[in-house]
Amino acid sequence: MALHGMKKPRDTAFDRERVREIFDFTAKSLQTAHPVAFGALIVNTSTGERLMRATNAVMRENDPSAHAETRAVRLACKKLKRPSLAGYTMYSTCEPCAMCMANALWARLDRVVFGAAIADASKYVMQIYIPAKEVARRSDMKCLVEGPVLGDLCKTLFTHPNMQKAFRTWSTSRKISRKR
């Protein structure tokens, strides 16, 4: 099925390698004081050259917009000194939320390839239930969304004991904030 006239989604060996790469990068955080399950990598669509990678920093930076995907886009645009990432593809350990997918569209990314689905993440942490493909479909901007790729592997980021402990802390923080 084509999306905005773009090619049919595919799960290539290159895509699996890049999802595995961002999985490995993100998994390293599980051994730190600030474990996260969300990571993003931006590469040149034509050459595969890596441009930027980032992990979620919402709790560390006290910034609700500091999702891995938005951080990777910000850093990549800053590095390129332009607001457009046309010609680039983003790989993410999890399907981008509506905010992150909108950011990817505004950045003009060619493609977004994700590991775990947003429904997988919602079992552990609050999510907005709008699939990335739906956000892209409703946009005037073109961006092919593909996934899940290595979804079962990426789901293990959510179930790691250190991540489970962090999720409990995140839930406690939200409950305190709601009482105010």
What would a concise description of this structure say?
It is built from 8 helices and 5 strands.
Task: Describe the fold and architecture.
- The protein is an alpha/beta fold and 180 residues long.
- Helices cover 44% and strands 16% of the residues.
- It has eight helices and five strands, in the order αββααβαβααβαα.
- A five-stranded mixed β-sheet has the order 2-1-3-4-5.
- Helix 4 links the parallel strand 3 and strand 4.
- Helix 3 packs parallel to helix 4.
- The longest helix has 19 residues.
- The protein starts with 12 loop residues before the first helix and ends with a helix.
Keywords:
180 residues; alpha/beta; five-stranded mixed beta sheet; 8 helices; 5 strands; globular; disordered C terminus
